[in-house]
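Researcher: Go.
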Amino acid sequence: MESTLAIVALVVSIFALIPSFTSNRYEKISFKDQVYERFAQMWFDMDHIFIDHPEMHKYFYKVESTGKYATLNPDDDKFELGICIAELFTDVFQYTAPLEEYLSESDRASYLDYKKMIMDAPIMQAMKQEHQWHKEE
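Model: Structure:
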């Protein structure tokens, strides 16, 4: 009788653990989904900057015909806007840095290539010169 009760108790305990394991699995999936959702939303918002200001695109992305970035001089009327966008990129990169480890390997590699491309833009270097408080990534 006692051994039967012990076996029943063991079986009930095992079945009681199943929801805990499955909910933990779903929480991990959910967290990863949240990371991807946050990345996607942030980059959609960043894309809107270039929709609103298409003339600024060439300062952050290489021009296809030349393979080089366009440059802005401090006396250019778009320079301050370029610096503001550069600061925003820097802030977004700093914010997303801790989340990078949750991206898949291929997504992380693509994202880091993208990040390097943006950070190599001359306007990003100008922003770092103008605003010394931004640390190197």
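Model: The longest helix spans residues 2-52.
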